Amino acid sequence: MSLKHRIALIFATTLVLFAACLTLLPFLWLLCASVKSNDDLFMYSFLPHNGQAWWDVEWNRLTLFNFKRLFSEFGFHRYAINSIFVSSTQTCLVVLFSSMGGFALAKYRFRGIHLIVTAMLVSMVIPGEVLLGPTYELLYKFGWLDSYKALIIPGSVSVFAMFLYRQSMLSVPNDLLDAARVDGCSEFGIYAEIVMRACKPMTGAIVLMTFMASWNAFLWPQIVLQSRENYTLPIILAQMISLYWSEYGIVMAGTVISIFPVMILFFILQKEFVGGLLSGAVKS
Amino acid sequence: MPDSIPQKRHKSPIIPYRLRRRLAPYGFLSPFLLLFAVFLIYPLIRSILMAFTQSYGPQATVFVGLENFKFLFKDSQFWRAFVNTVYFAIGAVSIQLPLSLFLALILNQRIPGRNLLRFAFFVPYLVGPVFVGIIFTLFYTPRYGLFNQTIDFLFGFGLDTRWLTNEYLVMPAIIIAATWTIVGFYMIFFLAALQSIRKELLEAAEVDGAGTLRRLWHITLPGIKPVTVFILVTSTIGAFKLFELPYILLKQNSGPNDSALTIVMYLFQTGFESGDLGYASAIGWVLVAFVVAVSYAQIRLTRTFREDA
Q1: Of A84, A100, A278, B8, which has the fewest CB atoms closer than 10 Å, so is most exposed?
Q2: Taking CB atoms and an 8 Å cutoff, what residues of chain A touch B213?
Q3: Burial B123-135 (b: 16+ CB within 10 A, else e)
Q4: Which residues are registered as beta bridge partners of B54?
Q5: Which of B17, B125, B131, B294 to mutate to test the interface with A (most CBs of A within 10 A)?
Q6: What is the DSSP letter of A246?
Q7: Cβ–Cβ < 8 Å for A107, A101
Q8: pTM across the whole model
Q9: Which residues pair with A53 in a beta bridge?
Q10: For strand B60-63 and strand B53-56, is the pairing parallel, antiparallel, or unpaired?
């Protein structure tokens, strides 16, 4: 490596390091904002400190009051439970339905397979926004508006997840399945015991993708939900920032709690997630 | 008792084996297909029909023929939304694509702590758009917000900039927030593409005396072209669907003088705040037509590029 090259690399690294700090700054700021009282929120950029010395933090001014009020006054646990319930149920359904569908498309030849695949590919190209109106109308006819069902069921069909499963199941050797058949394993047994076990990494990726999309969803819940007790976290926080705009500390505390679960899930599933993401993009 | 288990296995099944195997795929597919038909195929067809109707909520619907589309082309608010969205798409993509490629190129080098750095850029992607909107709402607060304070700290001006109430600064503010969330996501794709470039090729070029920039231009960039086109198309499609970020940043509004009104926001307003699902469907189909046309053009243009080179 030449000297010139090395200097350029050091320069670029410094730049990227600086950019990374800027990228993480909002998180640090958010955490600090959630433990400050309303008086201190805009007084100090990060933590309350003594005069000019930012390192001389006045720890005793930090407070969990925002978090307490969030639960006692705003009933935040209700929305958190709604979000957890809706996102986990939807994730389970997506994994179940799309893995079964992907298995059928990957490991069987049957009549109508081409028609089905074509229809799915077409549906993937078309942005979901055109479906909003008709789906709303449909759920109105079903009498499902303003319910968990309205949030969970329409979102439990994911063509993308199904194609990801199909792709990863194609690599499971057919001989293995035939050997299991000879041993008397049922078709469902093959799916559940062999193929799903082999596709565990893909399941990890799809769990994270689906959970994240569902957890962060705003447009659809905003359309179908009316009563407050059904609100999910993005809906209630969007309302709080628009209506109670002076209570920033509380909104920040709510945001901290809301972005936490997806982060934890990502820490657990990061390898699978990145692998699944790339297999969907680079190969297809 | 143990004897009964193998016996059960060899009992002749109610449905013969061959038939069972032929029926199995339909069984596996049926739950998915049912939902697919009800919540994707049916709404898709229905949405085409609805685009030719006018409605007041889901009950009262009147057939109006092509009126929706005729009105749409004269609807100045729709065009405002259209221009804003295109502005966002061009601005966001032309910043995010080079930036994420730049990050990937550097983080592909052997530098200390690169996994940690990659992670740092990726984490914002996990934060949902509503939460990003909330964080940046406070960030952009004039005088007290961290964003202006940082700019003031670095460059010595801009402490009082009103990002969210100045109609010319709203879109740049949205582009900055959007860039923060997505750059690390695209970076991951670029990194994967960079790692798939054969090392021997780069080494051979180095031996032949090609400098860093020439190697980048003649080997690395052509090598990652498929992924670049993929990100270009995906990010453009994503940009055309912009909704949550401006909606939250501007407190469920369209911004000063409709400066942050996007196509999807207009669709949401007409369909679900004013209750005209027919007109909303028409807007949706114009969006589809536009997205398909732009993606097709991007793929075609990048292909001719390759034939020339």
Answers
A1: B8
A2: none
A3: bbbbbbbbbbbbb
A4: B62
A5: B131
A6: T
A7: no
A8: 0.91
A9: A50
A10: antiparallel
Which residue, among B267, B121, B113, has the nearest Cα to B187 in the 3D structure?
Answer: B121
ipTM value for the complex = 0.92
State the Cα–Cα distance between residues B22 and A176, nearest whole angstrom.
Answer: 19
Amino acid in the structure at residue A49: H
CA distance A256 to A64: 12
Strands (E), A108-262: none
pLDDT tens string B241-298: 999 999 999 988 888 899 999 999 999 999 999 889 999 999 999 999 999 999 999 9
**Residues B55-76 pLDDT 10s:** 876 677 888 889 999 999 999 9
**Cα–Cα distance measured from residue B24 to residue B67, given in angstroms and rounded to the nearest whole number:** 48
Instruction: Please tell me whether residue B63 adopts helix, strand or coil conformation.
Output: strand
Size of interface A-B (CB pairs under 8 A): 255
Q: What is the dihedral of CA A33, A35, A36, A42, to 10 degrees?
A: 0
Residues in chain A within 8 Å Cβ distance of B153: none
Residues in chain A closer than 8 A to B237 (CB atoms): 127
| Strand A49-50 versus strand A53-57 pairing type | antiparallel
Structure tokens at A67: 């978090």
d(CA B212, CA B207): 12
> Are the C-beta atoms of A269 and A207 separated by less than 8 Å?
yes
